[in-house]
Design goal:
single chain, about 230 residues, mainly alpha, 10 helices, about 0% strand
Length: about 230
C-alpha cells in the first residue's frame, strides 16, 4: 500500500511525460524562433543586395548615357548591358539599351530588347512606338504598320491626347509615303474626330484627306478652317 502523499506509478509516468513534452515544446519554440530570425535576416540581406545592385545599375546607366552622348556607342552598349544585368526590372535601362543598339545599327538586338519589354508591358505605348519606328527604318512596312496601330490602341491618358494626335498624323504620313491610301484614309477619318477646333488643324486634316483621295472630306475641313479664320487667303 502506497504511503500517504507518495506519487503513484501512473502519476510519476504522467509527470515524466509532461516534462518531456515541455522540453520538446521549448526546443520547438527555439527552433521556430531561429527559423523566423533566419528568414527575416535572409529577406533583409536580399533587400539590401537588391538596393546595392540598383544603385550600381543606376551608375552604369549614367555611364552608358554619357558614352552614348559622346558617340561612344560600343562603350554605351557595354555599360547599359551591365546595368541591365544588375537591375533587370528597370524599364528605362532597357529602353536606353535598345536605343544604343539602334544607334549602332544592331537592329535585331534592339528589336529583341523591345519585344521583351512589350511582353512585360503590353500596354506601353512608348515601347510599341519604338518598335514601329524601328520596323519603319528597317523597311519592314507591314510590321511597322502593325506596331503603329498597337501604339495608337494603347492606353493614353487625357493629358496625352495631343501626343496621340501627332502620332496618328505621323502614321498617316507613313502610310501615304508607302502608297497605302486606303489605310491612310481610315486613319484620317479617325484623326478628323480627334482634332481641336482651330483653323490649322482643319487645314492639315484637309490636306491629308486630299492626299488620301477624298476631296469631298478635304473640302469640309477647308470650309471649317475658313469659318474659323475667314481672312485666310
Amino acid at each position: 500500500m502506497a504511503e500517504p502523499g507518495a506519487s503513484t506509478p501512473a502519476e510519476l509516468s504522467f509527470l515524466t511525460h509532461l516534462r518531456i513534452v515541455r522540453r520538446q515544446t521549448m526546443r520547438l519554440a527555439v527552433l521556430i524562433g531561429i527559423t523566423i530570425a533566419a528568414f527575416t535576416l535572409t529577406r533583409w540581406m536580399a533587400g539590401l543586395m537588391r538596393e546595392l545592385h540598383r544603385g550600381d545599375a543606376a551608375q552604369w546607366q549614367l555611364i552608358g548615357q554619357g558614352r552614348l552622348a559622346t558617340g561612344d556607342i560600343s562603350g554605351a552598349i557595354t555599360a547599359l548591358r551591365r546595368a541591365g544585368m544588375m537591375d533587370g526590372e528597370n524599364r528605362q535601362v532597357q529602353l536606353d539599351l535598345a536605343g544604343a543598339y539602334r544607334a549602332a545599327g544592331e537592329y535585331d538586338a534592339a528589336r529583341e530588347v523591345l519585344r521583351q519589354l512589350r511582353e512585360k508591358y503590353p500596354d506601353d505605348a512608348e515601347v510599341s512606338l519604338l518598335l514601329a519606328t524601328l520596323e519603319a527604318r528597317t523597311g519592314r512596312t507591314e510590321e511597322a504598320i502593325r506596331q503603329y496601330q498597337a501604339t495608337l490602341l494603347a492606353l493614353w491618358g487625357p493629358e496625352q491626347l495631343a501626343r496621340r494626335r501627332t502620332l496618328r498624323t505621323e502614321f498617316i504620313e507613313f502610310l501615304l509615303a508607302h502608297d497605302e491610301k486606303a489605310r491612310a484614309l481610315s486613319e484620317t477619318l479617325l484623326l478628323a474626330g480627334e482634332i481641336t477646333r482651330d483653323a490649322a488643324s482643319h487645314v492639315q486634316t484637309g490636306e491629308l484627306f486630299l492626299r488620301a483621295g477624298d476631296p469631298a472630306r478635304a473640302l469640309v475641313q477647308f470650309e471649317a478652317a475658313l469659318a474659323l479664320n475667314p481672312r485666310d487667303r
